[in-house]
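Handoff note, outgoing to incoming analyst
You'll be picking up this chain. Sequence as last confirmed:
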Amino acid sequence: MVLMESLSLPMGSPIIDFSLKGIDGRVYSLNDFADAQSIVVVFMCNHCPYVQAVWSRLVALQEKYKNDGVQFVGINANINPKYEEDSFENMKKYFEMYKMNFPYLADEGQNVAREYQAQCTPDIYVFDAGRKLAYHGRLDDSWKDESKVTKKELDQAIGLILAGKKIEEKQNPSMGCSIKWVES
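Most recent structure output, in case you need it:
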């Protein structure tokens, strides 16, 4: 396991469209979330302990904000033959195990992750109603132990974005396992 941090990206960058198959067999693109006030794109995978530690928190945040027009989208870019646990079939199992309430999509060619410059799992991007990047950082200040969280950075960021306010605080990078890039 190689520990990586998300890159510092320019706020205001436009969202990048995608066309990816979900575990339900549907193909999703940004048009499917046209009514969302905010879109939270999370690059994640099944095997990463960093993702597993925060998975329930992501589900809880989607539940908290579902009536406020916030749409989470999970994208697995670790579809790599060397990591069977991250296979499409196993994505379905993890979806059920964590009782996911947002789409879980497979980036089989890893092109979407490359376009977003995703580095790690989880790598979290929050876009405002204008589909501009407003937050790119970590979920909170204690990925490993939810009982030790003192600052819920993603939650606070979503609240500010929905209120039409700019996030003034420093955005701390997310960290986790490196994306398992397939050799070309």
